[in-house]
Write a sequence for this structure.
DNA sequence: GTCTATATTGTGATAGAC
DNA sequence: GTCTATCACAATATAGAC
C-alpha cells in the first residue's frame, strides 16, 4: 500500500454503497458511482479493477451488517425473553440506520444464491444454540410449544420486512408520509418484542 | 423448454415471467427470454415493441398476484380470528405456487417506487376496514391493545419473508435441504395464524 | 492520481428476405 | 410469422498524456 488518497477511496466506497444498495448490481452504473464520488470512470478502475471487485466490497460490508453482528447475540447466555427484546430492537435499529441493506442483500441473494454459501461458511452462523434454548424453555413449560425455527423466522421477518416493503407500506398505511413511517418503525423496536413474547409466553 | 402446443405469444409471456421474476428488469436479457421461448430476439419485438412493454405485462400480473387478491379478503365480514387464519394460510399458499413473486415485486418496488403509485391507485387497496375491525376488538377487550398497522405489518411479514429470504433460511436452518424447507413453509400455513392469535388474544 | 480519449464488448431494437 | 443480419448505442474497461 503506497500513498493512496484515502479521501478519494472513501468517497468511491461511499458512492458505490449508495448506488449498489439502491439499484442492485445489474442496475448500478459505474458512471453514476463516479459522478456521486465526484471523479470520473477511469479513476474507479484505477482503485478497483472491475465493477465486480467494487461490488464485492460493498456487498460484503452490507452482508456483514445484516447478518452476523446481531446473530452473535443469539449465542449469548442471556435469558430468552431478554434476548428476544435485545435482538429485535437492536436489529431494527441497525436497519433504521441502513434502510437499504435488507432489500439489497435479499435481492442479490435471490439473484445469485451461490454467493451466500461462500460468505456464510466464512462466518460461523450458528443459530443452534438459540434454537436449543427455545426448546429448553418449551420443555420447562415456560413458553408454548412452537417449532424454534418458526420462532426465529418470525423474529427475522418482523424486523426486516418493513424495510423491504417500505414503499408499499408507507403508501398504504401512511399515505406516503415519511415521518409517520419513521415513527412507526421506531415504535416497532418495542412493539415487535412485545408481540413475540405475547405469542409464546405461557400463562 | 416451452410447450409446442402453446402459441408463440403464450410461450413468450411464460419465458418472460421466468426470466424477469428471477433476474429483475435490469438483470433480464431479451436473448435469454427468446431462448427460453424457443424463438429469436426479433420475434420478441414483433409481439412486444420493447423490453419495457414486455416487462409491464409481467410485473402487472405479478403485482396483482401478490397484492390485491387476498387484500379483498380483509374487507369481508368474517370474524377477526377466522379472517386472520384464512388470510395467512391463503397468502402463504399463493407464494408456495409463485415463489419468486415476492422478491421480484419487492425489488422492483424499491428500485422504482413511483410505479406503485400508479398501480395502487388503479386498484382500491383499502385496509381501513380491517384496521377498524382490529380496533373494535381491542375496544371490546377481546384482543390485547396493539397498533392495528403493526398487526397487519406482522401478518404480511410472516407470510412473505420466508420466500424473500429463502436461500439464506434454507441454508442456515435446513442445511440446504429443499424438501425440508418446502415442508417448513407448508407447516407455516397453520403455525403463523396460531402464532398471531396467541400474540393478541386476551385470556 | 487524475484526467481525456478510445477500445471493446453488451444489448435492445430494426430492416428486409422468405 | 419467423428468420438472418445488422444497427445504434450504452456501459465496462484500458491506453496514455499530464
Amino acid at each position: 500500500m503506497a500513498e493512496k488518497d484515502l479521501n478519494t477511496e472513501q468517497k468511491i466506497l461511499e458512492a458505490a454503497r449508495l448506488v449498489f444498495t439502491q439499484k442492485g448490481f445489474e442496475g448500478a452504473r459505474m458512471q453514476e458511482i463516479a459522478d456521486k464520488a465526484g471523479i470520473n470512470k477511469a479513476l474507479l478502475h484505477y482503485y478497483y479493477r472491475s465493477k465486480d471487485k467494487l461490488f464485492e466490497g460493498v456487498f460484503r460490508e452490507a452482508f456483514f451488517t445484516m447478518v452476523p453482528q446481531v446473530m452473535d447475540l443469539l449465542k449469548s447466555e442471556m435469558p430468552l425473553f431478554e434476548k428476544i427484546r435485545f435482538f429485535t430492537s437492536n436489529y431494527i435499529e441497525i436497519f433504521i440506520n441502513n434502510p437499504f441493506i435488507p432489500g439489497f442483500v435479499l435481492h442479490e441473494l435471490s439473484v445469485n444464491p451461490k454467493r451466500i454459501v461462500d460468505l456464510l461458511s466464512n462466518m460461523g452462523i450458528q443459530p443452534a444454540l438459540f434454537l436449543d434454548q427455545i426448546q429448553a424453555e418449551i420443555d420447562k413449560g415456560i413458553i408454548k410449544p412452537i417449532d424454534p425455527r418458526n420462532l426465529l423466522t418470525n423474529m427475522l421477518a418482523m424486523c426486516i420486512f418493513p424495510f423491504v416493503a417500505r414503499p408499499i407500506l408507507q403508501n398504504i398505511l401512511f399515505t406516503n408520509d415519511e415521518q409517520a413511517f419513521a415513527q412507526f418503525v421506531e415504535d416497532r423496536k418495542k412493539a415487535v418484542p412485545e408481540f413475540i413474547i405475547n405469542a409464546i409466553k405461557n400463562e
Chain A touches chain B through 54 residues (CB under 8 Å). Residues 3-59 of chain A form a domain with the Arc Repressor Mutant, subunit A fold (CATH 1.10.10.60). The mean pLDDT of chain A is 93.
